[in-house]
Amino acid sequence: MADVEETIRRFLGGDVEAFDQLVREWEAKVFNLAWRFLGNRHDAQDVVQETFLSVFQSLNQLRDPKSFSTWLYRITLNHCRANWRNRSSNLSLDECVADKEGEEKGLSLASLVAAQSRDPLETVDLVRKAMMGLSQDHRMAIILKEYLGMSLAEVAEVMDCPLSTAKSRLYHGLREVQKNLKRLLRAGMQ
Amino acid sequence: MRCDEIQERLVELLYNERGTPTASAELQGHVNSCPDCQKELQELEAVRSALKTWKDEPPLRTVAGLVAPAKVVPIRPRFSILKIAKYGAVAAMVLLAFLALSNAEMTWNKDGFSFRTHLLTSPVLANSKYYNKDEVRAIVREVADDSEIRMMEGNRVMLLRMMEYIEQDMDARLVRAQHPRNQNRN
Questions:
Q1: In A, residues 76-95, which contact B (CB 8 Å cutoff)?
Q2: I need a labelling partner for A102 at 20 to 30 A (CA). Which of A59, A67, A121, B43 fits?
Q3: How many angstroms separate the first and last alpha carbons of chain B?
């Protein structure tokens, strides 16, 4: 974290290399957040570029460099939401289920993970589809907690909501993923 | 404790974060004694395991060097003159509004500068330099009396003059009556 603060200070002092360093350190995390939210790599790549453009324009407004990661993820979240809104269409879960690619036959939810070693790509595809069937808030809460390893308090801070709301979004998000996975598995068995 | 009351709190047991308050003994006790809640917790664990199969990937391409221009001008804090003027104008408006609401009174003469406010009071009632209703009535009455006296005095002078004219006229007639020849000659 001290390195990030130092890098930010160097950038604000006019060191262009410092910004490139900041980008190299954080772009993978921003990309994966956007990819899991949007379900599409190319849209995620657009979000990465838009996010770092916003960071470049407004980094001098960041009051506390220690909160850089929270601030960065909040900007990413805003761009993800804008990208999601601007899409001509978003795949619904029904459309995902109708798509036969990546079916997982005859498995319960518990055995899904066990099947990972046999066919990990199909498992990932099911998880991706199940995630895309969530509401934006539930999906974002799961991404922040499960994939970025944030604490519950940090999830609440990025999502700008009370801690209890963050817990509720996580719980209902996980339940929805569970429901969607079961639905996808049933569709695969038919 | 009912199962539906603690559902959302299962995430406290699921994550059991360091540095945050741990799940209460009551919650833990309920889950330990409730097969349904235990099953639900296991299902949530299974969902977490499934989610972990979606691994990170590298970005399609790096944006380092694309966002920042070739040369960066040092960024100064955004306290420009325009911003200061804007805040100054707002502060002046607030001050003027306060002065208006507090009935402020400012004087600046040879004795110096003075400032007074009359918060929540009317300056008419509070300040003795203004006439009250009774004083105004007394002044009007005095003016009216004065006018009446002046009018009566005027009438008296006019009557005296009229008397003088009449006496002079009578004297003139007596003189003409005593010298009729002079009158005929003319």
A1: none
A2: B43
A3: 144
Output the pTM of the full model.
Answer: 0.61
Going from N- to C-terminal start, the domains of chain B cover 3-51, 83-123, 133-185
A48-69: pLDDT as tens digits: 999 999 999 899 888 888 899 9
| Residue type at position B24 | S
User: Which residues in chain A are contacts of B74 at CB distance < 8 A?
Assistant: 12-14
On chain B, the residues whose CB falls within 8 A of the CB of A109 are 43, 46-47, 50
Q: Where in chain A is the domain with CATH 1.10.10.10?
A: 93-189
For every residue of A62-96, DSSP letters joined together read: -S-GGGHHHHHHHHHHHHHHHHHHHSS----HHHH
Distance CA B48, CA B41 (A): 11
ipTM: 0.79
Which fold is adopted by the domain A93-189? Answer: Arc Repressor Mutant, subunit A (1.10.10)
Q: Right CATH number for A2-86 from 1.10.1740.10, 3.30.930.10, 3.60.40.10, 1.10.300.10?
A: 1.10.1740.10
pLDDT digits (tens, 9 = 90+) for B71-130: 555 555 556 788 889 899 999 999 988 888 877 877 888 778 887 777 665 555 555 677
Phi, psi of B120 (to 5 degrees): 60, 15
